[in-house]
Amino acid sequence: MLDLVLLQPPDAVSSNPKMYFPLSLCYLAAVVEKAGYTVEVLDFRDSVKELPEARFYGFSATTPQINMAKAIASKVSGKTIVGGAHPSLLPQDCVGSFDYVVRGEGEEVIVGILKGKIKEGVINAPRIYNLDSVPFPAWHKIAEPFSDTLFSGERYGKGQVAGTLIGSRGCPYLCSFCANLFRNPVIYRSVDNIVNELKYLISHYGLFYFRFEDDNFTLHPEFYELCHRLSSLGIHFKCHTKSSLLTEERAEWLKWAGCEECGLGVESADNEVLRLNKKKETIAQHGGAVKILKKTGIRVKVYLMAGLPGETDNSVKVTKEFMRMFKPDKWTLSTFTPYPGSEIFNEPEKFNMTIINSDWSNWWNFIPNKGFNHILEGQTPEEMWNRYKEFYNFLKEETWRA
């Protein structure tokens, strides 16, 4: 019998649920294996498979995955553990469905649970202040750990096989729609540690294409040294940053290091929507960042969000104008979801909106033909959804590139 089985719940809505495997379970598996316990990772992203017998079953679940995780947990005979975004931010919703509910980073508590040294119930895991102490993800536990659609991205076809890694945990910003459990302090891996993981992935898997999952790659306190070291590896990578953090100098260093694509969280080209949702950025900064990246020769991907508090027909109009003016290379339009833990979820009335759907299984950022889980004051669900569909079609047709 195994000591631990870790399960990645199904993704019910993505057109390509296996585009990349989340890092969390791979990190946990590495810690458990290093401690001498037997562990397997089950990839249920596209379908539920047969479960082997184990003493413990661990789940990592976002909000829309939590119902499925509960359903699977109810059928196993071993003790159950849940961690990830939803249980970290809304633990009481998980009590009774799982024996252990872990809030925060699980690497420093998982072995204690297996040893029987931690009591059942809600566990407030401590922050890990030395990320270099965490072993590299156990990629060998996944049958399909890397993907030929990750680097090209959703809707953009296939490309080179690529993997993910992350050089930091946390984000210092306070966007009202964000449910990030880790804000300040942001904890960074050392440059040596990041580079050594890349060298391992190159030598063991032949990977040269990567996506950095950091919220703001350019915030690393040793950004220039990191770029210098990456430049010698011959890798190609994608990353994300805030428009307000990007300068021509930093973009040039990114390009030299091997960066081929940079994502920007634009969300909306309506400054009032940005202000209300505490983006702490302006549309002028977003436009400036797009221009800098294009000038540097780095592909620009903008992340847009429909249905944010404050959105009106005019918000979409000015965002269309932004796309016509700056013509980013790629785009993604998500449907705003007021995730547990975000300021909007905690105080919806403050943002002139009402949550109208409490079924977690519908709380995806991409909900084709299902509508929003909230309603903005003075608007109807039909008006909001029709505006989203019209804007999505505008983006998809890409006549704005002319």
In short:
The chain is built from twelve helices and 16 strands. It has 402 residues and is of the alpha/beta class.
Please identify the structural class as seen in this structure: alpha/beta
Shape type: globular
Distance between the termini: 61 Å
Contiguous low-pLDDT stretches (5 residues minimum) are none
**Spatial strand order of the main sheet:** 2-1-3-4-5-6
Fraction of residues in helices? 25-40%
Tell me the total number of β-strands.
Answer: 16
Beta-strand proportion: 15-25%
Most strands sheet: 6 strands, parallel
Radius of gyration: 21 Å
Characterization of the model:
Helix content is 30%, strand content 19%. The chain is of the alpha/beta class and 402 residues long. It has a 6-stranded parallel sheet with strand order 2-1-3-4-5-6. A 6-stranded parallel sheet has the order 7-10-11-12-13-14. Helix 10 runs parallel beside helix 12. The longest helix is centred in the C-terminal third of the chain and has 17 residues.
Keywords, please?
about 400 residues, alpha/beta, six-stranded parallel β-sheet, 12 helices, about 30% helix, globular
List the helices and strands and how they pair.
Blueprint: E1 2-8, H1 23-34, E2 39-43, E3 54-60, H2 66-73, E4 79-83, H3 85-89, E5 100-103, H4 110-114, E6 121-124, E7 163-165, E8 168-169, E9 187-188, H5 191-205, E10 209-212, H6 223-231, E11 236-241, H7 248-257, E12 259-267, H8 271-276, H9 283-296, E13 299-306, H10 313-326, E14 330-335, H11 343-346, E15 353-355, E16 374-376, H12 381-397
Parallel strand pairs: 1-2, 1-3, 3-4, 4-5, 5-6, 7-10, 10-11, 11-12, 12-13, 13-14
Antiparallel strand pairs: 8-9, 15-16
Helix pairs in contact: 6-7, 10-12
